[in-house]
Amino acid sequence: LGHSFVKRLQRDMLSNFDARVDANFKLQGSALVHLHGIDGRTVANLRSFDLQVVTSISPGVAILEIGTNDLSLEAPEVVGLAIEELVRLLLDSFSVRVVGVCHVIPQILNHHVSVALDDIPNAFCWRHRNFSHPAKNVYLADGVHLNPSGQYHLYRSYRGAILKGVSFL
């Protein structure tokens, strides 16, 4: 679940942007993957408008790509708290058994989320390693969204996050 990164990756996967990519993250038999992303999505909007997706799918694991859009509106501490509350809601009130929260690529929020999730069983933070110090340009001209190389790195990173989440089950 998340913002435009999830939506764009889903769109690119449907267009077969890379021969190495599989719509189910090459996890046949171990997981069924659903992507849901909305441009500009904030934590509050996800909570208000997207939880019906969680209800309809009933995932055992939810990976969240959220928080980046919030940083222009709120301080990192406030966004971190909102993410923590969302994680607790998913674990306590929905069928979700494990929640992974991806570190945002602007790294200012990551420490706050990591500390907040330390005390929550079955929750973890996931770092997109290839975006911390990318070896090559992975961004489009807008400097925010990912080019095809970046999309492939994001796909691989999400696959790792999904596998980590499944390992908790």
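^ that was protein a. below is b, sequence first then the tokens
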Amino acid sequence: MDEFLKLFDNTILWTAVLCWVVAQALKVLFYVIKNCKFSFERVVGAGGMPSSHSSTVCGLTAVVGRVCGLDSPLFAIAFTLACVVMYDATGIRRAAGEQAKVLNQLMEGQHTDPQKALKEFLGHTPLEVVAGAVLGLVIAFLMPVH
């Protein structure tokens, strides 16, 4: 039981979780401001401003660096993971989202079920990724570490 309670003292974990929560909350807020309506899909969905993936992995990387040191193997792992995630967000997932838009437009004239439309919010623009990264870094440097 004591080992389980140590989970609540894990600064690295809770920093990453906080980065994700803040980014998702901002994503919902920006969507509501832009579209004048709420979408539950924006609460947990991918894509949008800022990138919660980038915020999470950059916050994780920064706090690992603060706690374990920039020369630690854990920092190297976190940094590499952050690079892969952010590359994927702007590359592969963004391209898949653009393809989904085109396919959905083609299917509009086919009288298909609108619920079968492909998800278009998959990836991120470079600006969304940078915004998420900056958000994650700011949160990681504001967190108290011990």
